Amino acid sequence: MFSEVYYLVRSKTDGSYLTARPNSEGLGYLLVFREHFDALSYLNTHARDLANRFAVESLPGSQLGSLLKRWGFSGLAIVSDPLVPKVEFLQQS
Predict the structure, then answer these.
(1) Taking a C-beta distance cutoff of 8 angstroms, is the pair 87, 78 a contact?
(2) How far, in Å, CA of 63 to CA of 66, rounded?
(3) Is the peptide bond between 85 and the residue preceding it cis, with omega within 30 degrees of 0?
């Protein structure tokens, strides 16, 4: 996991990251993708009208922990199928 590169979707307007919120409490889970094209597919499928307001950026797995702490996320939401979407939630310990 630490040697992989992940792709995140970030707002061009305010710099916030795209998150998944399985419940209404907490800050949510940082949405991450294993491929750049998966992140673009997700945006084009589920937010076509808003896709131009977001940018996809890469981040090494070794930096995910510090990003989660800095922004206060509950954990990761790894998207394995951007079209359905199929998401695996990993809570930060």
Answers:
(1) yes
(2) 6
(3) yes
**Domain ranges for the chain:** 5-91
Tens of pLDDT, residues 50-89: 999 999 999 999 999 999 999 999 999 999 998 888 999 8
pLDDT digits 0-9 by tens, 40-52: 999 999 988 999 9
Q: Which two tokens stand for residue 5?
A: 């590169």
Q: Do residues 49 and 41 make contact, with C-beta atoms less than 8 angstroms apart?
A: no
Phi, psi (degrees; rounded to nearest 5) at 51: -55, -35
Asked if residue 43 lies in contact with residue 85, where contact means CB atoms within 8 angstroms, the answer is: no
